[in-house]
Amino acid sequence: MTETATSLSWDASGSEEAAVENRVTARQIGRMVREGDGRKALAAVRRWPVADIVALLMSLRSKDARRLIEIMPDETGLGVLSEIDPHLHALLAEEETKAKFRKLLRKLDQDRAIRLLDEMPRPYALDLIEGHPHAAELREALETNDDLASAHMRRGILTAREDGTIGEIIADIRARSEEIDRLERVYVVDHARHLKGSVRLRDLILYDDDTPVVQVMQPPRFFVTAETDQEDVLALATKYNIQNLAVVDGEGRLLGGIAAQELREISSEEAKEDMLLMGGVSPEASEFDGPVRIVRSRLPWILLGLIGSGLSASVIGSFETALTEAAILASFIPVVMGTAGNVGVQASTMSIQAIGSGVEWSGDFLPRLGRELLGAAINGVVVGAVVGLLVLFIGPSIGVERAQHLALTCAAALLIVTMVAGSYGALVPFILKKLKLDPAVATGIFINTANDVFGVLIFFTVASLIYF
């Protein structure tokens, strides 16, 4: 018996059985689209959650997905446009599909349209806003530096006049109720839109309608400028436990606001950026990058690592005599380099976490450096003792000459290396922060490369003193 279109469903459980059933469903709907039976395909998915429709589109061939999007009702299309991964929009970039997306964009309010466009590949987003009623404003927002507060603020926020009343604010809220998702405070401005303060939601409930706004408003204690870096915005909000921040221009005029949702987005972006930097990948990289973009975003970091490896090799080469006299030393180079890298990354990661939590240079810096140094020293003693004892007990049985010298070299070198790597890893993120650079750059390639060079240099210096 043939399954009817309306009985088709999508199983989001993630099980193997669900994957098999979903592939069958995708093939059936794809066949409907190719055979020109679009209405039947739409009937099959019209009651599906938007997330399931998006999953279906990603399972279809690009051509079939484009056709299905083109015939979708606007309400369903808006949901899909908002939920589908922005980088996939470019994969659906035939003119008919873009025309559909342009139509849907006109139905979104300006703030929602900007948030959606900002996640898309820039050339594709700029193409979509052609002919839009607010094309100039959207283009200006898209050309804003993504790391600035102005790139994350909501523009159409509710404001109150300084000479107004509580009743006027309430009336404005009622008139714009369809546009307001969540309201915690209303910013107060003068006739020139200079920020004067804010009124909390609770004040709108507690005070009479004829109460002057100026009587209940709070002064603007926390706000940021449009040019404030998003990392500083997040640090300010975290330090003072703020859920809403006003954004002003250089003359104090209100431009917009950053609410809890935007703060979460900034936090997510910062975490993603730090993760990529720590892995030696450009923050602009994406899993949808093509070969050329992959090379452009990763090759510079690989070349930097190559330079570091070259420095390490030159250090090793400078101790050619020591290697000739005691070739066994070469076997322990990976041990020293690996230990230095691990200790450095651990220390730098904790420093980056401290910076992200709002720790200032003059506050916890010196105690933190002292703790890292002491902890590294203890770890160095333990690791050095373990390696030294292994060399003493196992070395003679496998023909290692002068095992005592090798054991002492490893123990002393590992102690010094862990202390240097721990101090360096803890210190560098704070220095980069002072230099207005991203502390996450300290980890990954830079910390590992520096510690490799220092580790090898220390190891062979100690070996030269003990062996020769």
Number of helices, counting only DSSP H or I runs of 4 residues or more: 21
Give the N-terminus to C-terminus distance in angstroms: 88 Å
Mean pLDDT: 80
Question: What amount of the residues lies in strands?
Answer: 5-15%
CATH architecture descriptor text of the largest domain: Orthogonal Bundle
Reported for the largest beta sheet, the result is: 3 strands, mixed
Helix content: 55-70%
CATH topology of the largest domain: Tetracycline Repressor, domain 2
Main sheet strand line-up: 1-2-3
Q: Would you identify the CATH H-level superfamily of the largest domain?
A: SLC41 divalent cation transporters, integral membrane domain
Task: Give the CA-based shape.
Answer: extended
Pick out the low-confidence regions: none
Membrane topology: Multi-pass membrane protein
Transmembrane segments: 299-319, 326-345, 373-394, 406-432, 444-467
Protein name: Magnesium transporter MgtE
Domain CBS: 153-216, 217-273
